[in-house]
Amino acid sequence: MGLLTGKTAIVTGAARGIGKAIAMKFAAEGANIAFTDLVIDENGQNTEKEIAALGVKVKGYASNAASFEDTAKVVEQIHADFGSVDILVNNAGITKDGLMMRMSEAQWDAVIGVNLKSAFNFIHACTPIMMRQKSGSIINMASVVGVHGNAGQCNYSASKAGMIGLAKSIAQELGSRGIRANAIAPGFIITDMTAKLSDEVKAEWAKKIPLRRGGTPEDVANIALFLASDMSSYVSGQVIQVDGGMNM
Ligand code: NAI
Question: Which UniProt keywords apply (predicted)?
């Protein structure tokens, strides 16, 4: 028996990166996986194949997490296909960095839409199902910059601070219905999102990390597994930083 045997998990933005690592980790512990991404291209198809090889049910759904309508439809479809929704990981996210003085309205709206409104969309669609089941674990992917701020990322850090407030509010609203909600705040994790940073910026980050390395998607997935499973049955409304000790 795995830690998540028989559970259904939705992971958004999981064709690659941290979302994929979380979906794989959950599948290795026996969860059936419904994941979403903007398109299910080669990355998404590979993710599907790799998860299927672990012996669980899996399906990738093309859906824009920032769209309220798309999300309502995809969650209805997932519920019909899988029969339950036990775990929701709001992982889809983008960056469109810039200093406030130069930030366009479009940069602001895109990041808030994909990183924060998406979580509202999915929580709104999934919680009626979880309430009927009288159990559920919701995990919002935040960031250390949502706790501490970061010059040049006002849109991104506001969206991630929002993910923390959202998780804490849901934890308070729905705890009595058996639903837990927590946030993960990763630091510098090596994925496509951080690959585009210059070597100079990466070296600056490394200096601030006591463990002297960037994190791996699996480092984050391990915490997601803890929060998704009954190992954390008395943990709700928390933010767990996974950052090699960068922020204490
Ligand atoms: P990534 O860029 O490798 O993967 C993000 C995934 O989200 C991609 O597959 C992308 O297609 C998908 N996506 C983008 N817009 C979408 C939309 N509208 N609807 C559905 N899917 C969409 O990024 P990474 O690094 O795996 O990040 C995952 C999450 O972790 C994000 O929320 C990110 O903000 C957060 N995070 C990442 C950190 C890092 O250092 N890589 C640090 C802190 C937080």
Answer: Fatty acid biosynthesis, Fatty acid metabolism, Lipid biosynthesis, Lipid metabolism, NADP, Oxidoreductase
CB of residue 117 inside a 6 A radius of ligand 1: no
Q: Whose CA is nearest to atom 28 of ligand 1?
A: 18
Spatial contact of 97 and 157, defined as CB atoms under 8 Å apart:
no
Beta-strand relationship, 8-11 and 87-90: parallel
- CA-to-CA distance for 47 and 59, rounded, in angstroms? 9
pLDDT in tens, the chain (248 residues): 899 999 999 999 999 999 999 999 999 999 999 999 999 999 999 999 999 999 999 999 999 999 999 999 999 999 999 999 999 999 999 999 999 999 999 999 999 999 999 999 999 999 999 999 999 999 999 999 999 999 999 999 999 999 999 999 999 999 999 999 999 999 999 999 888 888 888 888 889 999 999 999 999 999 999 999 999 999 999 999 999 999 99
Regarding the beta carbon of 244 and ligand 1, being less than 6 Å apart is answered: no
156 is catalytic: yes
Ordered by where they begin, the domains of the chain are: 8-242 (3.40.50.720)
pTM over 0.85? The answer is yes
